[in-house]
Amino acid sequence: MCQENSAPQKCFRVLAELSRLALRERQATVALIRCLMEVDARRLYLAEGYASLFTSCTQALHLSEHAAAARSVA
Question: Which residues of 30-40 are buried (b: 16+ CB within 10 A; e: fewer)?
């Protein structure tokens, strides 16, 4: 990893990768929320046997309760 005695170029690559991964995570989150909005609007979770979008998120998608709640109201 990047430490005080690491080559500056190696540190730059690590930090650039971190930025790239953070951007991909934000893009994936936006796509996930858009899809969840459609699932919720069409109540598609009912066909899968879930009583709510929240339950579908926690049981089918294995999101934490905190993450499911945040995405269910987004």
Answer: eebeeebeebb
